[in-house]
Amino acid sequence: MKNIWRAPLMLALVSLLLFGAWSCVGDGDDDDSDDDADDDIVNDDIDDDADDNMDDDADDDVDDDIDDDVDDDIDDDTDDDVDDDMDDDMDNIIFSEYIEGSSNNKALELYNAGSASVDMSMCAVQLYLDGADTPTGGAQFLASVPTPLAPGNVYVVCNPGADADIIDVCDLQKNLFGFDGDDALELICYTTTMDVFGQIGQDPGDYWGIEPCTTQNQTLVRKNTITQGDLNGADAFDPAVEWDCYDEDTFTFLGEHTP
Ligand SMILES: [Ca+2]
Ligand SMILES: [Ca+2]
Ligand SMILES: [Ca+2]
Ligand SMILES: [Ca+2]
Prior knowledge:
Order of helices and strands: HEEEEEEEHEEEEEEHE
Radius of gyration: 47 Å
Number of helices: 3
Bound molecules: calcium ion
Structural class: alpha+beta
Largest sheet: 6 strands, mixed
Oligomer: single chain
C-alpha cells in the first residue's frame, strides 16, 4: 500500500503547494494593482488639491495685487484731488482798494492773499453796471501777457486819465472802468470767482452804504483783517463791514497793502 500511494500522494502535495504558491502570487499581484489604483487616486486627489490650492492662492494673489493696485490708484487719485483742491484754495486774490474819486480818478488794487503766484492774464474783472444781473461789456482781463503776481504783492488797474499820483503806481491802464458808485464788480481768476464788490443785480440808487462810508466819491481800503474775498455776489452789500472809508481823491494808500 505505501509504495502504491506514495507517488500520487506526493504529486497531490506538490500540486497543492504549487497552487498555494500561485494563489499567493496572484493575490499579491491583485493587491499591488489595488494599491497602485488607490495610490493613484489618493495622489491625484492630493495633487488636485495641491493644484487647486496653488491655483487659488495664485488667483488670490493676483486678485489681491489687482485690488491693491486699484486701491492704490484710487487712493492716489483721491490724494491728488485733495492736493489740487488745496492748491486751488491757495489761489486767493482779493480787491484791496477801490478808488471812485472825482472825474477819471478810478482805480482798483488787487492783493494776492494766497500762498501761490497768480497769473494776472488769467484774471479778469466783470462789471455789472447800474443793477445789471449779467456782465456788462464782457470780462476785462487784467494783463495781455503772462504777468505773475507773487503772494503779498498788489496789482493796480486804473483809468488812463487818472491823477498822476494814481498813474505812478498803476500796473495796467484800462479805459473800460466806467464804475461810478452804483456798479458791482466781480474778480475772476482761472474762471473762479475770487471776490465780489457790491450786490450783483441790485441798483442801489447812487451808491451802496451810508455816509460817511459809501461806494461813491470815496477811497475804500480793505480792512486788514480781511484775507478772503466776498464770494457771494447776491447778498446785501454794506462797504463798512469789510472796508475802511477815506475822503474823495485819497491816493496815499494805493500801490501797497498790509493785511
Ligand atoms: Ca453806474
Ligand atoms: Ca465819482
Ligand atoms: Ca457779498
Ligand atoms: Ca492799497
